[in-house]
Amino acid sequence: MSTSRPEWILIETLVPGEMNVVAKGGSPRRFADAVSLQRLAPDSKIGVEPFLKRALESRSRYEEVVDVRTRGGGSTKFRLLTHPVLGPTGAVHALQLWMGPSDAEPGPPRITSGVSWLLEKGVIAQTLEASMMSGVEPDAHVPERTPAEYYAKSIRFDDTAGLFTLCLAPTAGGTWEGSFSVLHADGRIMRWHCHARACLEPGEVGARVLWHDVTDTVEPDKPLLDVLARQRGMEALGIYPALLVPERSLLTMWLCENPAPWVQWRDVSSGFEVFHADDRHIIASAHERVQGGGHEQIVVRTKGSPGHAPWIPTHMRISSYPGDLGRHLAVVDMYLD
Length: 337
Description:
Blueprint: E1 9-12, E2 20-24, E3 27-28, H1 48-58, E4 62-69, E5 75-86, E6 92-101, E7 112-118, E8 123-126, H2 128-133, E9 144-145, H3 147-151, E10 154-156, H4 160-168, E11 175-183, E12 189-199, E13 206-213, H5 225-236, E14 240-245, E15 250-254, H6 280-290, E16 295-303, E17 311-320, E18 330-335
Antiparallel strand pairs: 1-2, 1-6, 2-3, 4-5, 5-6, 7-8, 7-13, 8-9, 10-11, 11-12, 12-13, 14-15, 14-18, 16-17, 17-18
């Protein structure tokens, strides 16, 4: 039985049949740190899991008051409250749970949101709450962003390989967790913790993701100075590195502080639109040839940004991403002749 001050508990429900504690009071927990849901109860007579199942079915703010009999013949009332964290496809990605005395008033729920990496469309779908986490005004919300647009918000992300392995080659039971340092619209640096599970449902193949702003409990990581220096040195030479999914010609992430200025990679309906459809086979074929090592120089047309031609011949030095992920991902350096 817990006697500590009641805190909000974050329980991921990313795929059917899963219900796991991933944070308590703003402190993230790993998938592997399994905690019995019943142990969360303020009194052993309260059935936590049945309550959570009812809350999950409601898909909205859900509350119950439970009257627990004491040994002396009296009773104590407890308040059980949940707020759902909905994803962009309507699935409940998590429940925020608070349990305490019925006369206690909980603080505001944690800042959380749900997004989905939709592999077949080449986009990341996001809810309004996901947009607002980084300071985007509601009227500026865009329901879908390309992966490159979405991760442009990140100023420090150390486990690119882990997340992309899950999202680009999802398998049943696949998971990923980690943290990002994200720049807020007001200029401050935030730390977001992420829990993600592979999703194989038709129309949603990719990954379901849960974001949690933990800036108040975990110090955000700052950009590494040597990385910034290397990025700016390449930009000074007119070279702009990025990550691609060659099989789909999908731009997933820029590896430079300022992306190639002639490429229209923002405000496109899909990450597939960045490269000319007739040139996609060039990227895929080159990647096949360099998977054993080395690199190759190719020229493909990229969508021109405003003020440029509609399609611009772009030189690319392509090599395979290190390790097993290289089957799905390539590193390219883009530059003009």
